[in-house]
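F.,

This is the one I mentioned.
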C-alpha cells in the first residue's frame, strides 16, 4: 500500500501560505507539490469547507488562509482532507469462519483502535504554528543561501 502524503503536503502548503503575502494559485501549489492543479483544488476544497482557507477566482485570485495557524491543529487538517487511513495494516478476511483468523483479527482491531485513538489525540494537540516555529528555528540556524524548498 502506498503512503498517503496528503496530510503532510497540506500542512506544508498551509505553512507556506502563512509565510507569503499574496494568495497562492492552484497552479503555484501544484508546482510546489509536483501534482496537478485539479488535485490541489479538490484537496483544498475540504479546507475551504471547514473555514481554514478561502479561494477567489480570476486575476489576482487564489487561495488564502482565513484563520491563523495557531487556530488550526493537525487533526483539523486531517479531518478536512477526508480522514485518510492512518495505518496500512489491518485484519484479513480470507477465511472468515476460521477461529484463528477471528482471534488474530480481534487482537489487531483492538491494538489498531488504541493506536488510532492515541494518534488522533496527538494530532489534536499540535497546532500549525508550532510546526512553523520549528521551521523558523531551523531556518534561522541556517543561512538563507543554504535553504532549499521549492515554493
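My design for it:
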Amino acid at each position: 500500500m502506498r503512503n498517503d502524503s496528503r496530510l503532510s503536503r497540506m500542512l506544508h502548503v498551509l505553512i507556506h501560505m502563512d509565510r507569503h503575502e499574496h494568495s497562492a494559485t492552484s497552479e503555484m501549489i501544484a508546482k510546489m507539490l509536483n501534482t496537478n492543479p485539479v488535485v490541489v483544488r479538490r484537496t483544498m476544497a475540504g479546507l475551504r469547507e471547514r473555514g481554514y482557507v478561502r479561494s477567489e477566482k480570476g486575476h489576482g485570485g487564489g487561495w488564502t488562509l482565513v484563520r491563523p495557524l495557531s487556530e488550526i491543529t493537525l487533526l483539523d487538517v486531517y479531518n478536512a482532507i477526508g480522514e485518510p487511513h492512518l495505518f496500512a495494516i489491518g485484519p484479513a478476511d480470507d477465511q472468515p469462519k476460521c477461529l484463528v483468523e477471528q482471534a488474530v483479527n480481534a487482537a489487531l482491531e483492538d491494538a489498531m483502535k488504541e493506536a488510532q485513538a492515541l494518534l488522533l489525540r496527538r494530532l489534536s494537540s499540535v497546532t500549525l504554528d508550532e510546526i512553523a516555529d520549528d521551521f523558523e528555528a531551523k531556518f534561522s540556524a541556517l543561512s538563507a543561501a543554504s535553504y532549499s524548498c521549492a515554493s
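The mean pLDDT is 90.

Talk soon.
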